[in-house]
Amino acid sequence: MNIDIKHIAKLSRLHIEEEKQEKFESDMQKIVEMVENLPDIEDAPLLDASNPITLRKDKAETGKYTRDELTANAPHVTAGCLVVPKTVE
Description:
This protein has a domain at about 5-35. The protein has helices spanning about 5-10, 20-35, 65-70, and strands spanning about 75-80, 80. By secondary structure, it is mainly alpha-helical. It is flat, with a radius of gyration of 26 Å.
C-alpha cells in the first residue's frame, strides 16, 4: 500500500514541513503494516469467566466539604457560585 502523506496532511489540515514528509510517510507505512499483521480475534473470548470484573458502587457523598473549601481555588466566585466566561451570545 502506498501512503500519500501530502494528501493525508491536506485532508487533516496539517502542515508538514517538506524535510519531514518522508519520515512521516515511512512511519505511517510501518503503522499500517503493523495493523495489517495483527491477528484476528473473532474466535477468542473477550471476557475471562474465571476472573469476573466487579465494579464499585456509585454513591454520592454529601457534606464532606464546605462551599468555601470547594471554591477556594476558583479564579472567580460571586455569591458562592463559580463565574465562567460567556460561551453563547
